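If you are new to this repository, start here. Below is one unmodified record pulled from the training split, so you can see the exact layout before writing a loader.
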Amino acid sequence: MNFKEKYKPVSYSSLNSKQKENYNFHKVAATLADYGFNSLRLNDDWQGADFISVHVSGADILKIQLKARFTIDKKYIGKDLYIAFIEEGKVKLYYHDDAINMIPENIENSTSWIRDGLYTWGKTPVIYEPIISILN
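And here is the target side for that same chain:
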């Protein structure tokens, strides 16, 4: 029996939260590999990062936090982190502190930002498109 007869693609929605995180890591890591990065998963969220990606040139090492959607979070400020997420089947990447520097006033004054220090969107807001890199 060949592989495709034995195995079928999984439905993302059928996965549990840990399986989704693993799935997203591998999708993002595979995309970063196309740009010359080797990604290494971390077990302990080192300095806020879920994984690091090292460029083949050795000149760049990215600390990356994996998210389900576009997110800003006070706990990531100043940690030199990139945020990676998959939206509409596309891997997207942005430098977190660039997003922090663009917070609209309505978000900055929102209860969730003031109380929780966290804000997420179901779809990336248009104002953040200039800092988003779409990798595939």
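Two things worth knowing about this chain: The longest strand covers residues 81-87. The radius of gyration is 16 Å.
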